Amino acid sequence: MGLIDFENFSPYPKNPVISRVFKEIGLADELGSGVRNLVKYVKIYSNAVPQLIEGGVFKVIVPLRKEVTGQARKSEKLPEKGVEKGVEKGVEKGVERLSENERTIINLINENPSVSKKEMLEKSGLGKKAIEYNIELLKSKDIIKRIGPDKGGYWEIIKE
């Protein structure tokens, strides 16, 4: 209890059931990755270290620069074009990222474009709903599409 030391941090799920559900549907990559990302990006953007305080209530203190909080004078603000380009590139890279489950499905399709959902289920270790959910995600992102019927058809990877 108290302030969490990032050097000796060992992640554990406070609610293993919810943790497993989010990992299964591809909304969580791995245990503790959020804390690592928080520390990494807060250092980059505000040149400070966040504080995680564990107790009856879990608290996160994220120190921000004046530019971020809107307290900066006009002369202190970041150049707008640089910020716009940075945000644009960040969004593009974020779109390119896939969850572990999505990558698993892409790899199975690469190995065998005729792979069925049942075979994906057997080879991936994912649940039926996770397979269907992630296939729909990949379709909605225009990454894969199904050519032909379930039986006799195949998967096409539109963009990798």
From TrEMBL:
Q: Which Pfam families match?
A: HTH_24
Query: SUPFAM superfamilies from the xrefs?
Result: Winged helix' DNA-binding domain
Supply the Gene3D superfamilies for this chain. 3.30.565.60, Winged helix-like DNA-binding domain superfamily/Winged helix DNA-binding domain
PANTHER family xrefs: GLPR-RELATED TRANSCRIPTIONAL REPRESSOR (PTHR30595), SCHLAFEN ALBA-2 DOMAIN-CONTAINING PROTEIN (PTHR30595:SF6)
Record protein name field: ATP-dependent DNA helicase RecG C-terminal domain-containing protein
